[in-house]
Structure formats: C-alpha cells, structure tokens
TrEMBL record:
This is Multidrug efflux ABC transporter ATP-binding protein LieA. It holds the Pfam family ABC_tran. InterPro entries: AAA+_ATPase, ABC_transporter-like_ATP-bd, ABC_transporter-like_CS, ABC_transporter_ATP-binding, P-loop_NTPase. The lineage of its organism: Bacteria, Bacillati, Actinomycetota, Actinomycetes, Micrococcales. Belongs to the ABC transporter superfamily. Keywords: Antibiotic resistance, ATP-binding, Nucleotide-binding, Transport. GO terms for molecular function: ATP binding. The gene is lieA_1. Residues 11-239 form the ABC transporter domain.
Amino acid sequence: MTATRTSEPAIRVRGIEKSFKDLHVLRGVDFDVKAGSIFALLGSNGAGKTTVVRILSTLLKADAGTATVSGFDVAAKPNDVRESISLTGQFAAVDEVLTGRENLVLVAKLRHLKDPGAIADELLDRFSLTEAGGRKAGTYSGGMRRRLDISMSLIGNPPIIFLDEPTTGLDPQARIDVWQTVKKLAEGGTTVLLTTQYLDEAEQLADRIAILHKGTIIQNGTLAELKQLLPAAKVEYVEKQPSLEDVFLALVGETGETDAAAETETAGKELR
Ligand SMILES: Nc1ncnc2c1ncn2[C@@H]1O[C@H](COP(=O)(O)OP(=O)(O)O)[C@@H](O)[C@H]1O
Ligand SMILES: [Mg+2]
C-alpha cells in the first residue's frame, strides 16, 4: 500500500464474504467511507448489516475479501483497528444501577485515562445530560440512554465510530435527538458508519448511502445520486422528486415490482 494515511478512506471494504453454515450472508461487499463523513449501510432486517459491522470491528472474521479501518487491515492488525474505533450496538451497554456520570467515569477509568471526572462532565455537557448525570441510568428515557451509550463509546476520542441501528426502538423525539448527536459527531471530524433499516434515517443523516441487499451493495451514492436513479414523477403541475423510499423499493423490489413496473407506476402518477 503506497497511499498515505490521510488520503486513504477511513474504511475500505473489498470483496468481503461471510457465510454461517449454508447461509451465504455476504457475497462480496465493497465500499469506502471517507474520513469525517457519515456513511449509512441501509438494508432490511437480516440483510447482513450487523455482520459487516462485526467484521469491521474485528469481532468476526470474514471468509474472503479484505477490509481496512484507519489504514489497518482488520485481519492482520486487529489491535490497531480496535484502538481506532468504538462500537455502539443495537442494545445499549449502559449499567442501569450506576448514574450516567458514574457510567462515564467507569469507562474512562477502564481506559486508563487521566481525570475521568472531567471527561465525564465534558461528555454529559456535550450530550445535554448534565442535569440527568446524577440520576441512575435505569431512570433514563430510551433517547437519553442511547445518548449516554454513544457518549460512553466516545471516551478516548476514537476517530471512527460504528453505530449499529442507533435509533431502533426509540420514539420520534428521541430519534431526532440521536440524529442531532450523530451530526455533531461528524461535524467534529469523527467518521461515522451507521447501519439502519430506516430510509428516513439514512436520508436525514448520511453523506453517502449504500444499500445492502442479497449479500452485496446494490447501490452506493449520495442521496441526490440515488434519487437520480428514478425519474421525477409529475403530479399535475407540481414536480415531485422520488423519495429514497421510492428508490429503495424500486431497487430492492420488496413489493414484487420490477424496475419496469416501478416506471409504469411513475407514468401512471403522471396521468392522474
Ligand atoms: N452467528 C450467527 N450464526 C448464524 N447465523 C447468523 C449469525 N449471525 C447472523 N446470522 C444470520 O445472518 C443473517 C444476517 O444477520 P445480520 O448481520 O444480523 O443482519 P442485519 O443486522 O442486517 O439485520 C441473518 O439471517 C442472521 O440470522
Ligand atoms: Mg443488525
């Protein structure tokens, strides 16, 4: 590899394959994530999103292909990869008996950082949890808990963060809070790879969206690029751009429609 660390993508995935017994979940997955960007891996339940995240965070070995994170090969340099990342899973790793602040102090101590109290206070402030910091995390709402979970994963300032379905199970207001948190992270220079099954989440947050379907990335682009895959449908005098949902359904065909059928549907709207 001749490229310098800074010109490399933060994450590079090439030809990753993974099977569980007879189940060929990943069949050659390729994508790059630019440093400092938010990248959404979008797919239905069971598409293999968590499997990708587990491979990239060195929790699981791929059967074939290569991946580098922060320039380090996940198979050859797992320790270097782990030092560059943090992972927030779908199920919050918060200790409910401890207060929010105690949870943060504990993680900072486990990471042998100086002044765990100051680190905890800074994170509570950054995630609007200062007032709740002295309360047991078991009393937090879903959104507060998720924000605490994300803030815990930021201790030690990892340059890359994996968020596996960060808002699954949250109410609408909590989702918006988490979205703002994620946006702030990226503004601060952190690279974010998130997985989601929610089209609006990808639409709201991501600089790039990759659709994982039947084991491969079937599309990868900015929201604008994905929307260009479908013609704008005209309804009376108002031009309606296709939503990400239209694009997703046309590509994935969950409704049983082929691309041609989707176009007929669009044409139908024009006539109405
Ligand atoms: N450890 C495992 N053993 C067997 N099957 C698994 C294992 N992990 C995941 N799978 C299967 O692989 C498929 C993809 O799972 P996953 O990556 O969790 O999907 P997603 O996160 O997109 O919902 C699913 O069918 C799931 O049941
Ligand atoms: Mg998953």
